[in-house]
Amino acid sequence: MRKLKITELNRISTEEFKEVKKLPLVVVLDDIRSLHNIGSVFRTSDAFRIECVYLCGITATPPHPEMHKTALGAEYSVDWKYVEDTVETVDNLKKEGYIVYSVEQAEGSTMLNELTLDKSKKYAVVLGNEVKGVKQEVINHSDGCIEIPQYGTKHSLNVSVTAGVVIWDLFNKLKMES
Fold first, then answer.
1. Is residue 10 part of a domain?
2. Alpha helices (H) along the chain
3. Positions in the chain whose pLDDT score sits under 50
4. 73 part of a folded domain
5. Which strands, in side-by-side order, build the sheet including 79-83?
6. Read out DSSP for 99-117?
7. What is the pLDDT of residues 88-120, one digit of tens each?
8. Can you give the CATH number for the domain in which 81 is found?
C-alpha cells in the first residue's frame, strides 16, 4: 500500500465545485464562537458537497485567517450566507421546503442511527453554540431534533466533530449518483 500524492486524488476545482450537483442539505451554525470550528464545518461541507452554510448570530464570516487554518480554502468553494437571526433562517428554510433538524439532546429527539430520510426532500441541520448548544427558540421552530448516540462519560462532542458525524451520516442517507 502506498500513500497517494495530492496530484493523484483528482479533486475538482473551486469553479467546478460551484457548478456540480450538491447534496440536498444545508448547515446552519447557531452562535459558533470558534473560528476553527467554523473552518472545520466549511471543510466538511466541501468534502460532502453541501449546498450552503448559514452563519447566524455571533458566528464569524469569511474571510478570516484563523478560519482559513482549518477551512483550507473551503470557505471559497462552499456557498455561505450570514443571517443574524437563526430563527428567521430556520423559518425561511422551512418556507423553501427544507425539513429542519436541530442537532441537540432533547425530549423526543431521534437518534441519528434511527433517522430515516426521504431522498426526494431537502434538509437542514442546525448546530449550536459550543457551550449552550442550539437555542430553545430555534428548537421550537425546527421540525425535530436529532441526537448522536454516545456511550461514554461525556455528554457532548465538539461541534466540528458533531458536524462531521452528522454530515457523513446524512450524506450516506441522501447519497446522490455521481
1. no
2. 14-19, 35-47, 65-71, 74-77, 86-95, 136-141, 159-174
3. 178
4. yes
5. 79-83, 50-56, 23-30, 122-127, 98-103, 144-147, 110-111
6. EEEEES--TTPEEGGG---
7. 999 999 999 999 999 999 999 999 999 999 999
8. 3.40.1280.10
Q: What is the CA radius of gyration of the chain?
A: 16
pTM: 0.96
Looking at the structure of the chain, the number of domains it has is 1
Q: What cell was used for 163? A: 458536524
DSSP 119: T
Give the pLDDT of residue 177: 58
pLDDT in tens, 48-59: 999 999 999 999
| Chain-centroid distance, C-alpha 82 | 14
Quote the cell numbers at residue 45: 461541507
